[in-house]
Design a protein that fits this description.
The protein has 380 residues and is α+β, with helices and mostly antiparallel strands. The chain has a domain at 60-258 and 322-378: Cytochrome P450 (Cytochrome p450). It has helices spanning 32-39, 48-52, 63-66, 76-84, 90-109, 119-124, 126-136, 143-153, 159-182, 188-198, 204-234, 237-245, 250-260, 293-296, 331-348, and strands spanning 20-23, 26-29, 44-45, 117-118, 270-272, 276-278, 281-283, 288-291, 353-354, 376-378. A five-stranded mixed beta sheet has the order 1-2-8-5-3. Strands 4-10-9 form a three-stranded antiparallel beta sheet. Strands 6-7 form a two-stranded antiparallel ribbon. Helix 5 crosses helix 7 (126-136) and helix 11 (204-234) packs across helix 13 (250-260).
Length: 380
């Protein structure tokens, strides 16, 4: 159905068809309770290598992109995740907050006053890219290429573009790992190289793949979260005024903003390893299960009046960061970036407004993520 609150958005919701339904591509889960259960069910595997073995998909994705930590199950997933968890703890993110605030300020200094300006290219893209590149140790001169390759990886209906980008970013990470071996530093990638070379807890392909995953996932969803969140506030002026008057409410508002317009519309690939019953529907073994995060976050059974942005709502149960052992590792960092960026924009530009009618905004065409191609705003 078409979502009347989000022009141009098609949103699957629960209703007479039920929270779990079958289709030509497998099973689609749209109910919040069922989605939460699916995300945490070990019978739903993420091991794409097993599922696609012998199926001949015809894709030419680089193995470092096709076989990331997101496409593994325990015990491999547990081992890989443990190596990077420390970089995204509350304490580690707190140490990054001054850097996030400084980069945000520098980017806002470039905004023209009184002329239309694209929030996406002016803040939502460069801020998360700068933060994750700083964390990993990616040189500043290479960050424009990282942005381009990442955008191409999510290009919808363009397999050649996606495959080419996968090879480009994997080749880049391979070279960066080699450079870090020659001249080690203190960045997260240096610690992963040391783990690989020291106790051999990583294969070389796993090392490159983990670096690629952190680089791409570390900014892509945050970019879309920032754009979606600001648009939601601009289209709900009463809530925007509340945050402007009481900026201390921003941290609590982040959950509702993520719930209202999730940057991840569909969770990454899963398939059943045995028959599973979800929402009264029996799903046979060996079939794909797509978990519709965006629909689950608008499930009226869990969030009454779900199409209304309500910053007083307790939306902490949203699934925007996933759930279970695969819950987004970088959630604390994404929250910090969103909070700092929104507070800075509202504080510095109290008169910010859309520069074009909302109906004219364009959205990126991707399956997994949902975000704006551009968000023209005007400040004074």
């Amino acid at each position: 159905m078409t979502d009347p609150t989000q022009p141009g958005r098609t949103r699957t919701t629960t209703g007479s068809a039920g929270p779990v339904r079958s289709g030509p591509a497998g099973y689609l889960v749209t109910g919040h309770t069922e989605a939460r259960a699916a995300l945490n069910d070990p019978r739903l595997s993420k091991d794409t290598a097993v599922f696609f073995a012998g199926k001949g998909s015809g894709r030419r994705l680089h193995p470092a992109v096709a076989r990331t930590m997101l496409a593994t199950d325990p015990p491999d997933h547990t081992r890989l995740r443990k190596l990077v968890t420390g970089a995204f703890t509350t304490g580690a993110v707190a140490a990054l907050r001054p850097f996030i605030a400084r980069v945000t300020g520098e980017l806002l200094d470039r905004w023209p006053v009184g002329a239309p300006f694209d929030f996406v290219s002016g803040l939502a893209v460069p801020l998360p890219v700068a933060v994750i590149c700083e964390l990993l140790g990616v040189p500043e001169a290479d960050r424009a290429d990282v942005r381009r390759w990442s955008a191409d990886l999510f290009a919808s209906g363009a397999p050649d573009v996606i495959d080419s980008a996968s090879s480009a970013i994997a080749d880049y990470m391979t070279g960066l790992v080699a450079a870090r071996r020659r001249s080690p530093g203190t960045a997260l990638l240096d610690r992963l190289v040391a783990a690989r070379d020291g106790s051999d807890r990583l294969s070389e392909q796993e090392l490159v793949s983990l670096g690629v995953l952190l680089l791409v996932a570390g900014h892509e969803t945050t970019t879309n979260t920032l754009g979606n969140a600001l648009l939601a506030l601009l289209r709900h002026p009463a809530e925007l005024r509340r945050l402007r008057a009481r900026p201390e409410l921003v941290p609590g508002a982040v959950d509702e903003l993520i719930r209202f317009d999730s940057a991840v519309s569909t969770a990454t690939f899963r398939f059943t390893t045995e028959a599973v019953t979800l929402g009264g529907t029996e799903i046979p073994a060996g079939v794909p299960v797509l978990v519709a995060i965006g629909a689950a976050n608008r499930d009226p059974e869990r969030f009454p009046d779900p199409d209304r942005l309500d910053l007083d709502r307790d939306a902490s149960a949203h699934l925007g960061f996933g759930h279970g052992i695969h819950r987004c590792l970088g959630a604390p960092l994404a929250r910090a970036e969103t909070e700092i960026a929104l507070r800075a924009v509202l504080d510095r530009f109290p008169g910010i407004r859309l520069a074009v009618p909302a109906e004219q905004l364009t959205w990126r065409h991707t399956r997994l993520v949902r975000g704006l191609a551009a968000l023209p705003v005007q400040v004074r």
